[in-house]
């Protein structure tokens, strides 16, 4: 099992830093050391150019430059201006080499970007942005301190053009941008430098789940019954059902008006929906549903836990209908906007608002999948292969979550576990995978 790693928004990070018992000067020293060590480990001892901005991100740069030089690396510094915090000024005073102007500095093989971190508020000035891009492109290896400059910590937005980095060293905790698009795509490898911040909170990167073990006296129903409601295009729900069966459900049943071909023989096909059967651990409705809103209505009449996916999301209409339903909702961006409208804020804030409005656990899918709970928790998915972007992988995920829910995990934990397991299965399946191959890797 890997632990969930905390994710702190910029304001929460500042609070955590202010509460650190070691003091801010020591925190900056640790950040600079973490940066220097990570850069050395990644790039080896090559001539470096450190770009220092006006705030504490720049302060980290002055510390890292000093420590790299102490380790024997030829280091130069170029600054965009004078430091404007006491911490950064103190860090700069310990650098006794020259400081070049950013727009005149020649490139170096190793480029370390300490222009802006979590304090970025607006787009970089054009001259600063151009210098950053030119120097990164002319380097062999580019390392970002905390965040690539131009990236907004809480949203993952690029406030001005941001070049691609090979390595990003996050200080103290991951920030939302490390796991949100578009920023996460340009960060290269993301490593965490421990600076002694201890700030567990309701936002975290989803770690490897602990799954319920199979009791020695288990029987098929105690392991969990998933009931799937088939609609107009049964291929999709067949994928979900297969995924549920391979995710440890003891019994998978599909109610369907016509026999569905290609299902494992162990998946039971029935004509009657029986949605209030107390043996049902989780209902699944949506994949391949088509224009049959009555099947969603049927699912909402049931008192059993449920996963609502795909076409069913389009039939909900009013998110408040889901209150008290013990539901997991799995929209992609289009389905999300259709149900919740264009919500303001970052993807994390939108997911949270959606969870609050619906009372459901919301899995807001995409290359940067988030799992939000009405109680304020958000699990950010670790990066998953882009080859998941193929038809049917969402149906597989819905079946996995339904099985984990039926096996006894609470809705939020089941959703987080499903997202994590789907990503690892995709890694094993490889780039040529189709959704069916994903099931084979569960
Ligand atoms: N606060 C602390 O104790 C620590 C902070 N750390 C570092 O400090 C960073 C945050 O430092 P700051 O809050 O000083 O913020 P930054 O260093 O990210 O920069 C913000 C500064 O630049 C200004 N600014 C913002 N956007 C600008 C733009 N587009 N053009 C020009 N100026 C702009 C702001 O007004 C502020 O003065 C973290 O990312 C991390 O690297 C680490 O040293 C660990 C300890
Ligand atoms: N670029 C990407 N990188 C990683 N994962 C992705 C990417 N695009 C989509 N995914 C994942 O693939 C799945 C697609 O689900 P969905 O859009 O519902 O497809 P479908 O309805 O065809 O099953 C989701 O789990 C989503 O998070
Ligand atoms: K930076």
From TrEMBL:
Quaternary context: Homotetramer.
Outline what the protein does: Catalyzes the dehydration of the S-form of NAD(P)HX at the expense of ADP, which is converted to AMP. Together with NAD(P)HX epimerase, which catalyzes the epimerization of the S- and R-forms, the enzyme allows the repair of both epimers of NAD(P)HX, a damaged form of NAD(P)H that is a result of enzymatic or heat-dependent hydration. Catalyzes the epimerization of the S- and R-forms of NAD(P)HX, a damaged form of NAD(P)H that is a result of enzymatic or heat-dependent hydration. This is a prerequisite for the S-specific NAD(P)H-hydrate dehydratase to allow the repair of both epimers of NAD(P)HX.
Cofactor(s) listed: Mg(2+); K(+)
GO function terms (MF aspect) = ADP-dependent NAD(P)H-hydrate dehydratase activity; ATP binding; kinase activity; metal ion binding; NAD(P)HX epimerase activity
Q: Which residues form the signal peptide?
A: none
Protein name, per record: Bifunctional NAD(P)H-hydrate repair enzyme
Q: Which InterPro entries match?
A: Carbohydrate_kinase_pred_CS, CARKD, Nnr, Ribokinase-like, YjeF_N_dom, YjeF_N_dom_sf
The YjeF C-terminal domain is annotated at 203-442
* Cross-referenced SUPFAM superfamilies: Ribokinase-like (SSF53613), YjeF N-terminal domain-like (SSF64153)
Keyword Acetylation in annotation: no
Where is each YjeF N-terminal domain found?
A: 8-203
Q: Which residues bind (6S)-NADPHX?
A: 56-60, 117-123, 146, 236, 288, 332, 395
GO terms for biological process, alphabetical: metabolite repair; nicotinamide nucleotide metabolic process
């Amino acid at each position: 099992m890997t632990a969930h790693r905390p994710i702190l928004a910029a304001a929460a990070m500042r609070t955590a830093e202010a509460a650190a018992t070691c003091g801010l000067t020591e925190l900056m020293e640790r950040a600079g050391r973490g940066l220097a060590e990570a850069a050395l480990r990644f790039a080896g001892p090559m001539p470096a150019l450190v770009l220092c901005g006006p705030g504490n991100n720049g302060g980290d740069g002055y510390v890292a430059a000093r420590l790299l030089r102490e380790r024997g690396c030829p280091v130069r510094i170029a600054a965009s201006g004078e430091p404007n915090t006491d911490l950064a000024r103190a860090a700069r005073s310990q650098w006794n080499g020259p400081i070049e102007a950013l727009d005149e500095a020649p490139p170096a093989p190793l480029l370390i970007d300490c222009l802006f971190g979590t304090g970025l508020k607006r787009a970089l000035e054009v001259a600063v942005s151009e210098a950053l891009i030119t120097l990164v492109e002319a380097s062999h290896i580019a390392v970002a301190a905390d965040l690539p400059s131009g990236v907004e910590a809480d949203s993952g937005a690029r406030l001005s053009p941001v070049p691609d980095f090979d390595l990003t060293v996050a200080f103290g905790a991951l920030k939302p941008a490390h796991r949100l698009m578009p920023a996460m795509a340009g960060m290269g490898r993301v490593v965490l430098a421990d600076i002694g911040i201890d700030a567990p909170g309701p936002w975290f990167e989803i770690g490897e789940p602990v799954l319920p073990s199979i009791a020695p006296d288990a029987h098929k129903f105690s392991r969990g019954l998933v009931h799937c409601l088939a609609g107009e295009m049964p291929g999709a729900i067949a994928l979900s059902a297969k995924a549920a069966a391979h995710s440890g459900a003891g019994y998978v049943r599909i109610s369907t008006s016509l026999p569905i071909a290609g299902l494992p023989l162990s998946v039971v096909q029935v004509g009657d929906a029986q949605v209030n059967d107390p043996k049902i651990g989780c209902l699944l409705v949506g994949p391949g549903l088509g224009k049959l809103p009555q099947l969603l209505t049927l699912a909402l009449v049931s008192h059993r836990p449920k996963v609502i996916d795909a076409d069913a999301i389009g039939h909900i209409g009013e998110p408040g209908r889901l209150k008290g339903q013990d539901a997991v909702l799995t929209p992609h961006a289009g389905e999300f906007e259709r149900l919740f409208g264009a919500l303001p804020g970052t993807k994390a804030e939108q997911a949270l608002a959606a969870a609050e409005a619906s009372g459901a656990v919301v899995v807001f899918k995409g290359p940067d999948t988030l799992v939000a709970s009405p109680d304020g928790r958000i699990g950010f998915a670790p990066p998953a292969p882009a080859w998941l972007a193929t038809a049917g992988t969402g149906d597989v995920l819905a079946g996995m979550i339904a099985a984990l829910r039926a096996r006894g995990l609470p809705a939020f934990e089941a959703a987080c576990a499903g997202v994590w397991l789907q990503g690892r299965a995709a890694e094993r399946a490889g780039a040529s995978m189709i959704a069916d191959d994903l099931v084979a890797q569960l």
